[in-house]
TrEMBL record, chains A, B:
Keywords, in A-Z order: DNA-binding, Transcription, Transcription regulation
Keyword Membrane: no
Database matches in PANTHER family: LACI-RELATED TRANSCRIPTIONAL REPRESSOR, TRANSCRIPTIONAL REGULATORY PROTEIN
Residue intervals of the HTH lacI-type domain: 4-58
Segments crossing the lipid bilayer: none
CDD domains: HTH_LacI, PBP1_sugar_binding
Protein name: LacI family DNA-binding transcriptional regulator
Molecular function terms from GO: DNA-binding transcription factor activity; transcription cis-regulatory region binding
Family matches, as InterPro entries: HTH_LacI, Lambda_DNA-bd_dom_sf, Peripla_BP_I, SBP_2_dom
Length: 352, 352
DNA sequence: GGGAAAATGACTAACGTACCTCAAAATATC
DNA sequence: GATATTTTGAGGTACGTTAGTCATTTTCCC
């Protein structure tokens, strides 16, 4: 039951402490036969370095920057809240999480913010990457400077980001399409789609997924052309009101992006809320209430807390050069109906 | 940016190191005015103890026992696999997770296993608690001996367990009912329910939730009386085959417990698989395949990896006497359709 | 076999906290 | 005001690792 230390390893391998240290920490100047001896001893003794002692000795600190959109978006606010709250609780663990609001619609500003970072300021960056080429370039340059970058929520696959923390948006769109197809009766009907902008990668992918499923498995359903509301509540309210007026017999509605609040108010005002099957994204106080009031029928979501924690773990793993446990870092596509809503936690008000 | 240590706190408070230590670790013999001075200094300086140094110094080890059912059940196997895999990876963190298989159907044996534990052997216990009174008593006695106990997957609310790590099974049942109600056309139809045993708390709760929703919102659907297959594949296959023969026009089927493999094979064999809407529990290789083949229409699940990690975090928090972050420890009710299945991870074969 | 280079050993000082002892000072008790 | 008691200070050791330095040994090459 006693702990195996490097002393034991040294003894077992018949070498000195210094040599064991050289092997364990990959320092140069050790013959490979000796390396083998040490490694052999390590795993016959099943030596595991003491994380506490190691952490103390190398007095490493992890400084991470989180670049998160600052818009009036309940999901992003949740993400920011989770990040700042972790910034506090983990500061004892030699973690310094700095949250920096960015304007996700201004590619140059985001690229500029990224350009200011290097290893003197931080050891890792998580960014909700808008799909601008200058952002991709800034990510790549930052990594060339030795700072690992992970994308959060919205990926930028063309870049060299080391990891993406977020959901598979095509699959999310497919799920939305499946729910619409199955919730609606097997008869012709029209489905409206409201997105923020198809220029946003995640929105485009969700649309693609939804369309795939509807066209393949529910051909009796007719997808109206996508309306873009720029994730703005007022615009969405307007769009949805008009859609409902133009299509009094509308069967389904898929709100691909944010701006749920606008969509919900237009639906409620129209009096058609219950007859239209509506699927939205992200669990916020508004979508939650809409589900309970049968205005929304399903919500596809991703857990912001999981995403922040996962991003931190991944960045730490990248800094330490240890492998990432894929299974643990996979972010699930959550499906919420009115019946499986998580209990509310006490949170300050937010807008969307 | 430099780290605040107890030295700084001592200096700021105008007391000695020893006194700071006494206050911080709640040792006796300090005047309350002094305590106040120190605490004041602690939070003006925002002192946070260094977890690495503390961990090293108090060479604390956390020894946790996980008592998990050993039956041929893919979900429990996943749970066991996650637990043993964490036992390895966390052994460096002074965590010793011991997994002990139990026969969940033998209350006396489980109680006997619990009775053998005390603080000389382990610092915390997580148990998938079968609903026997002797198990409740054993849990309470174990806690009286100073070992915190959390229940896992299946709760025992009457006991004094400190926490329950698992899903709200009533809500899970409601979700299943909702999916059946919404996937089926709005016309009369029969729904069959196969459980392991209504004597199992989680199964009973799921049934209750499902019935609530169906009776309230989908009264045109007729719930057949529950068949109990004891989570056994052969029994389930038999039951389902008979159900399908007796009810050729069966509209829906809810498989409340394990034994999915039996249910699936009977459905496939009957040729009625596609016409019956089927909801099952837990994501296993079999239910996954059934979803993809349109034999199952939805699967309600809980993530075994999350549950194990949560149980470990909770037990550690209980040992350290620090508060539990509720939001982080809440286990979600996952809903899987064929479209939002997580990518498969490489795992050894399992049976169910 | 002699000299250079490479490999290894022996030691030490951190890192920040926990926990212990013993003495000194402050306060309480009569 | 003397004594008993409580409170505080000073100092040390231990925890297991990292990351050095410098001396010594081994190996290699001509």
């Amino acid at each position: 039951m006693k702990r195996v230390t490097i002393h034991d390893v040294a003894e077992a391998a018949g070498v000195s402490l210094a040599t064991v240290d050289r092997v364990l920490n990959g320092r140069p100047g050790v013959r490979k036969t000796t390396i083998a001896k040490v490694k052999q001893a390590v795993d016959t003794l099943n030596y595991k370095p003491d994380v506490f002692a190691a952490g103390l000795a190398k007095k490493r600190t992890y400084r991470f920057h989180f670049l998160l959109p600052n818009g009036p978006n309940a999901f992003m606010e949740d993400l920011t809240r989770e990040a700042t709250s972790h910034a506090e609780t983990m500061s004892g663990d030699r973690m310094h999480v700095h949250v920096e609001p960015i304007d996700a619609f201004d590619g140059h500003r985001v690229a500029g913010t990224l350009a200011l970072l290097d290893h003197t300021v931080c050891d890792g960056v998580a960014v909700v990457a808008p799909a601008f080429p200058e952002v991709r370039a800034a990510i790549d340059r930052l990594q060339d400077r030795g700072v690992p970058v992970v994308t959060l929520v919205s990926d930028h696959p063309a870049s060299n980001r080391r990891h993406f923390v977020g959901i598979d948006n095509v699959a999310a769109g497919r799920t939305a399409g499946r729910l619409l197809g199955r919730f609606l009766p097997r008869q012709p009907g029209k489905i409206a789609i409201v997105a923020g902008s198809l220029g946003l990668r995640d929105h485009a992918e969700r649309y693609q997924g939804c369309r795939e499923v509807i066209e393949q498995d529910y051909p009796h359903l007719d997808l109206l052309k996508v309306r873009e509301g720029r994730d703005d509540n007022a615009r969405n309210a307007d769009l949805v009101a008009r859609l409902l007026k133009e299509n009094p017999e509308l069967a389904g509605l898929y709100n691909i992006g944010a701006g749920n609040r606008g969509t919900i108010s237009a639906l409620s005002a129209s009096g058609q809320a219950e007859s239209v099957v509506v699927v939205g994204h992200e669990l916020t106080p508004y979508t939650r209430e809409a589900l309970q009031a049968d205005v929304f029928d399903a919500v596809i979501a991703q857990d912001p807390g999981h995403e922040i924690r996962s991003a931190i773990r991944v960045l730490k793993a990248l800094c330490d050069g240890v492998p990432i446990i894929d299974g643990q870092e996979r972010i699930g596509i959550d499906v919420f109906l009115k019946d499986n809503l998580p209990a509310v936690t006490d949170r300050p008000d937010s807008t969307e």
